[in-house]
Amino acid sequence: MGPSPATVPSGCYAIETEPYGAPFVVADEPGPVMPRHGQRSDARRRPLVSQGPRGNIVINPDDARGLETRHASAACCGATPNGGLNQLCTACGTLVATLCSDCCLPYELHLPPDHVRGLPHS
If we measure between CA atoms, which residue out of 58, 53, 48, 108 comes closest to residue 78? Predict the structure, then answer.
């Protein structure tokens, strides 16, 4: 089927204020594991939540260039954010982003704030 519709329009970005991606830890109360994701539990059926980075810059994956998927937690139609950073910069070889592209999840690319710097538009 392919990815769901993008959550961020092309040419725009959003700041994710909640934790996103791995690692996941046991929570006291059930709830969404990450923003725009359903509930998740461990093998003992205890609820999990994300302890991943906050302040991610979220963009439309189609706007990214020079990235290759690596170490992605596979699903039926694409990558999930369950394993953390899964996008490799082809220029420097560093894992720089987390792609979420499975059909049952939001289609978005998360860039940790310490991996991004603003440059003047020329």
Answer: 108
